[in-house]
Design brief:
By secondary structure, this protein is of the alpha/beta class. 26% of the residues lie in helices and 36% in strands. It has a six-stranded mixed β-sheet.
């Protein structure tokens, strides 16, 4: 089995609803998404996938949708105020935890036809969350 991995750095803000800790307040992160693609065979170039293909699709999507945005639960009461100020937002049906953001990036990458096996989101230099689909799914 062959694997390639691409790291994508971006900045985002969020807060968690129904959370008893510092993350209940609006705050930001210098995040790093780590995308791992797998294939049993290499293409005619001898590659799983060209790294620039991941950049052209996934990095551009992250830049356009998540970078320098507030990633929020769509039930967050701050949304009308941020809209009024013209702040960029990306809304989720669930809390914007590192786990859910990793899954969001995984699902987008998979929807583009990439044979992704794992998405990891580094929220800080010491903390990350990983999403991979259940085996056999």
């Amino acid at each position: 089995m062959f694997r390639v991995t691409r790291e994508i750095d971006f900045c985002y803000g969020h807060r968690l609803l129904n959370y008893d800790g510092k993350c209940r307040y609006l705050h930001g992160h210098n995040g790093r998404a780590v995308i791992t693609i797998e294939s049993a065979q290499l293409d005619e170039r001898g590659m799983v996938l060209d790294f620039s293909d991941i950049k052209d699709v996934v990095s551009q999507w992250i830049d356009a949708n998540l970078d320098h945005c507030m990633i929020l639960n769509r039930q967050d009461p701050i949304i009308p105020h941020l809209r009024e100020l013209g702040e960029p937002m990306y809304l989720l049906d669930e809390n914007p935890t590192a786990e859910n953001i990793a899954r969001l990036i995984f699902e987008f990458t998979a929807s583009q036809g990439f044979p992704i096996i794992e998405a990891r989101l580094w929220e800080t230099p010491r903390c990350f969350a990983t999403y991979a689909p259940p085996r056999g799914a």
